[in-house]
Amino acid sequence: xxxxxxxxxxxxxxxxxxxxxxxxxxxxxxxxxxxxxxxxxxxxxxxxxxxxxxxxxxxxxxxxxxxxxxxxxxxxxxxxxxxxxxxxxxxxxxxxxxxxxxxxxxxxxxxxxxxxxxxxxxxxxxxxxxxxxxxxxxxxxxxxxxxxxxxxxxxxxxxxxxxxxxxxxxxxxxxxxxxxxxxxxxxxxxxxxxxxxxxxxxxxxxxxxxxxxxxxxxxxxx
Amino acid sequence: xxxxxxxxxxxxxxxxxxxxxxxxxxxxxxxxxxxxxxxxxxxxxxxxxxxxxxxxxxxxxxxxxxxxxxxxxxxxxxxxxxxxxxxxxxxxxxxxxxxxxxxxxxxxxxxxxxxxxxxxxxxxxxxxxxxxxxxxxxxxxxxxxxxxxxxxxxxxxxxxxxxxxxxxxxxxxxxxxxxxxxxxxxxxxxxxxxxxxxxxxxxxxxxxxxxxxxxxxxxxxx
Lengths: 222, 222
Hints:
Two copies of one chain form a homodimer. By secondary structure, the first copy, chain A, is of the alpha/beta class. Chain A has nine helices and eleven strands.
């Protein structure tokens, strides 16, 4: 199983790349708009993994080439780049490829950070609109604090709700998520249910901003 | 400190009444549209508490009379009854009374349950619009599974995000929440941040519906 992380040089993509490289045997391909930039970050990830005694290869490529080599393509780009990014790789995707959307649309005002969904209703639904009709889209990894995710010294104990209209694709992505130690995927139904998941990300930011003892928040349901 | 639970005969109101009566010395006044109905439920709560060896008095009254006697008034009614309920008690509230809104607007379709906020942006904001100008409104207790909350044999380990535009009122309600064993109040900022909290309730319902091992869900942030 090969996973491409488009926008894998920043934020949530960095943490997912490191965690999958550290915790699983999946092939990890860091994608970026510039192949050189992708390689530089993949080198950094390999160096960091090596410093922890983990001998892992992190591959790299420009986004379309990374996507072409992958079974699962994580669109870890900001929400406002999502449609363009998907369009840039659409005709390169493998026959059974799955697209995964972890992005959240947010806006900030004096009170805090607020959910700011696109007209499609959610960013995951926007990804489904932008994707080719025969490519299943899965929403996952929305509620993970990027800093803690990328810190391999930090033990996770988080849930990630997963939505998709294609049950097989959802199952594959839930298995990928479960490969990361301390991450529990939960089935949240179809893409119509994505907005409530994405809404939790600004809440996590507001809670960290307003409670001194809390930072790098994720969520656990029980 | 006296707490009135308008709509304290059902759902979340029942659990809050039982928990405060069991875990704290606060006066608990169950309110309902009919005083007789409120008394019947208060008797049931007293019987249940007694069966667990807890000798607690649960008072009761019609909603306006219950509200008049309380320092903090919990509007534990469905979202579509919220404005009417607040209007029905508005001119009876004590000088320093605080209103608390735990309600969430939801709608169901084939995919699951979805957040369905009123035009005010959130149910908590709707409560603030309906309340007299000098009465602070606090949003809290949105994400608690009613069945588990009302089952005193069940240990809780949940967070409840709390929002208000009045910091003093927020602090008082956070103290009330902290009086319930296993419930941790978290400051989520102002009422402008309520929508993201209320949105989590349909997510909890969707997760319970789609994962066999999960039911009566609450949330913990860490």
